[in-house]
Specification:
58% of the residues lie in helices and 8% in strands. It is mainly alpha-helical. The longest helix has 26 residues, at 81-106. The protein has six helices and two strands, in the order αβαααβαα. Strands 1-2 form a two-stranded antiparallel ribbon. α3 crosses α4 (69-75).
Length: 125
């Protein structure tokens, strides 16, 4: 099987008897995406040891969802692109805000330049 087949099976597993629709009540958009309920997708990639290989990690997650249906429904949900994309953008904004707070703490509130905004300098990595 290829990743597309695993994805289809994972979506069908998460949909269960409720049918192939978004988890948001009243939404019947069928362009579905698998969403980490607790926003822990990046953590899961780090924990899985696949590094930045989102494709391999995603395929492994699809397999896990199919194998562990009831447990998977506690960690994942189906969202349509309309409801998942704002969630992704909100998390990105929050990450930038957290980085700016970390930079402000590191610079003791002094003004900083655009060069200070490089990821490695913000996080201290």
């Amino acid at each position: 099987m290829i990743a597309r087949d695993y994805r289809r099976e994972a979506i069908e597993t998460l949909a269960g008897s409720e049918g192939l629709c978004c988890s948001v009540p009243g939404c019947y958009n069928d362009e579905l995406q698998i969403d980490h309920i607790y926003n822990d997708g990046a953590f899961a990639r780090k924990r899985s040891g696949t590094g930045n290989s989102v494709t391999k990690q995603t395929t492994d997650e699809y397999r896990w969802i199919v194998k562990n249906g009831p447990a998977a429904k506690r960690r994942f949900q189906l969202l349509c692109n309309i409801h998942n994309n704002p969630k992704i953008k909100a998390m990105a904004i929050r990450n930038v805000f957290d980085d700016l707070q970390a930079l402000a703490r590191r610079t003791d509130g002094r003004w900083f330049s655009v060069d200070d905004l490089k990821v490695g300098q913000i996080t201290g990595a």
